[in-house]
Amino acid sequence: MPELPEVETLRRSLERHVRGDTIDRVLVRSPSLREPLRPTTLRRHLAGRRILKLRRRAKYLLIDVEGGSTLAVHLGMSGRLALVEAERSRETHEHVLFELASGRQLRFRDPRRFGLVFALASADLERDRHFAHLGLEPLAEGFDGESLRRRARGRRAPVKTFLMNARVVVGVGNIYASEALYRAGIHPTRGVDRLAAQRWHGLAGAVVEVLEEAIEQGGTTLNDFADANGDPGYFQVSLAAYGREGEPCGRCSKPIRRTILGNRSTYYCPGCQR
DNA sequence: CGTAGACCCTGCGCGC
DNA sequence: TGCGCGCAGGGTCTAC
């Protein structure tokens, strides 16, 4: 699923269509996600409330409703949100359905069930355990090489593992960690204690670039919710390293390699990443 | 404290 | 055609 660019694209696309609509009912079909769904809590916060605004924090989509409550959705690996007419036939793995006053439903579907759907008081968000320990937002003010380098102090982890640690920086998943390191010319296994200040700047810049370009591509290539199927789908972005094992590097022509780091596939160029 | 590894769950594509 | 295997873009928990 979805890394940050996909969640951000989802937010922008969905907001246009649901802002001002009201959540009439919350239907929980199967409560077992990564954390059990809590139907009564969802209803208490959401039922009868008008949708005010959609936000994003890390990879969480946040839907603010009237009365000071927020619906939080994390898509995990395989989660999707679809906006469909209420009559549309149900699909497998549709765990939660939000009935809107407009006659449409917002449906959360997640075959692998690594996702999360919960509601809370908006004012408690920053203190909530899901958000309290999150690190830097890479697309916000204050994210740069220096802030990354400071957080690396005293650590020796491979730089890719470090980048994917949500307590350090959020939203950089397995694909964009490989992509950013490729772009910055940094070898994924390099220890964070062996990166000069200059290279931290290059890395931070690369992270911002790959995320922003992906959001831009998502915005142009993705079907909007206005289409017949109501599902924004996942989008294909042009990736330089990820998934390209054996293909020639675009810069130096050496074959891209795949290795495993922290249980995750990692792609890099042995020629131009040091 | 930081790090490595197992684990959660279902579906898909591949080779045999 | 059917089966077993490896793999998948999320995060958390445990042992060291």
Structure summarized in a few sentences:
The chain has 274 residues and is an alpha+beta fold. It is built from 6 helices and 10 strands; from the N terminus they run αβαβββββββααααββ. β6 and β7 form a beta hairpin.
Please name the defining characteristics of this protein.
274 residues, alpha+beta, 8-stranded antiparallel β-sheet, two-stranded antiparallel ribbon, DNA-binding
What's the helix and strand layout?
Blueprint: H1 4-18, E1 22-28, H2 39-46, E2 49-57, E3 60-65, E4 69-74, E5 80-85, E6 94-100, E7 104-109, E8 116-121, H3 145-152, H4 159-163, H5 174-184, H6 197-221, E9 257-261, E10 264-268
Antiparallel strand pairs: 1-2, 1-6, 2-3, 3-4, 4-8, 5-7, 6-7, 9-10
The structure holds a DNA duplex (16 and 16 nucleotides).
Protein described:
Strand 3 (60-65) and strand 4 (69-74) form a beta hairpin. The chain has helices at residues 4-18, 39-46, 145-152, 159-163, 174-184, 197-221; strands spanning 22-28, 49-57, 60-65, 69-74, 80-85, 94-100, 104-109, 116-121, 257-261, 264-268. The mean pLDDT is 95. Helix 3 packs across helix 6 (197-221) and helix 5 packs across helix 6 (197-221). The protein is α+β, with helices and mostly antiparallel strands. The longest helix is centred in the C-terminal third of the chain and has 25 residues, at 197-221. 26% of the residues lie in helices and 23% in strands. The strands form 2 sheets. An 8-stranded antiparallel sheet has the order 5-7-6-1-2-3-4-8. It starts with a helix and ends in a 6-residue tail after the last strand. It binds a DNA duplex (16 and 16 nucleotides) through helix 5.
